[in-house]
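Predicting structure from sequence has reshaped protein science. With that in mind, we have picked out one protein's residues alongside their backbone shape tokens:
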Amino acid sequence: MNRSDLINALKDKVALSRKDAGKVVDTFFDALKETLAKGERVEIRGFGSFSVKNYKPYTGRNPKTGAQIHVTSKKLPFFKVGKELKENVDKA
């Protein structure tokens, strides 16, 4: 499922116009991005939680040449699946 499929599913389920359903989807993802950008956690009960993990700098290797390279510290989004979602996927 992609963004367009999500908009169509919302439009059909709640009887919204495609434009309004698109605004709802965009608002949800914008709020999710803004919250994660602040370093805060987003929890959706029964689905899972989104958080930001901090990774320390390390020395890596270029797989093509084998040369050592310095990788700087970074923050990446992390998703932890919820119990209910895990059980529903396992049943399917």
About this structure: The longest strand covers residues 48-55. Strands lie at 42-44, 48-55, 58-61, 68-71, 74-81. Residues 21 and 27 are 10 Å apart (CA to CA).
